[in-house]
Amino acid sequence: MSEQDPLRIEHRPNGVTVLTFDNPDRRNPMTRRLTEQWRRAVRSLREAPDLRAVVVTGTGPAFCSGADLNELADRHGQDLPGTRAQLSAFYRTWLSIHDLAVPTVAAVNGHAVGAGLALALACDLRYAAEEAKLGAPFVQLGLHPGMATTALLSEAVGLPCARELLLTGRLVSGAQAASMGMVHEALPAGQVLPAALDVADRMAAAAPLAVRLTKSGLSQGQLTVEQALSWEALAQPVTTTTDDFREGVQARRERRPPRFTGA
Description:
Layout: E1 7-11, E2 16-21, H1 32-46, E3 53-58, E4 62-64, H2 69-73, H3 80-95, E5 104-108, E6 111-113, H4 115-122, E7 125-129, E8 133-135, H5 149-157, H6 159-168, E9 172-173, H7 174-180, E10 185-187, H8 189-204, H9 208-218, H10 225-240, H11 243-254
Pfam family, one: ECH_1
Protein name: Enoyl-CoA hydratase/isomerase family protein
InterPro entries: ClpP/crotonase-like_dom_sf (IPR029045), Enoyl-CoA_hyd/isom_CS (IPR018376), Enoyl-CoA_hydra/iso (IPR001753), Enoyl-CoA_hydra_C (IPR014748)
């Protein structure tokens, strides 16, 4: 795959789509070309009626090395409003994965640094190679963190730990990231994508509306018990009216795997 086409898209028969960064010689940076391909890909996924889950991964030694530093350096000396508008568009394009209605899984096959880490954190679930390096060394480059890293990292590891990682720019291994809660599990590199696909397949096999509503509820953040009850009193009755609910109950009675259709 050439640098001119750095994103591979695989639509699997069960509704799982795999997005793979394929510019390994440069450690999969977020170039203008890749950013535009990503924008189009996520927009297409948003409109895909049969989508069940998305897996994001990379090729080579890196998951994603973050923003292309050469392109970022080209903005030096530009007017502040113009730079702000460009970076805001960049952030929102990449973080659009966060707002997909279906579950998303980051298979962090290798290093995830800066905006690359933010992208992984924007996914619902994360699995990383044990020896991968993860971190947000913005301050070591003279930069303030971007792409909502301050919020996403704090949500994953807690504010005290996020402070230490962001203020020092320290990188951690995949195994350390798992111990912090930054990723859900650390695995040998060759097992990361299969594990992520296994999780995606399990979610794809569940009832689509129930999964989407569950993700929507979780995306509201840490709710109080009363807030959760209010949401669930709206969402659960909707699912009880579906054919999938009837199929789920019938499959349980017959002790067989359910066959959900999304109806």
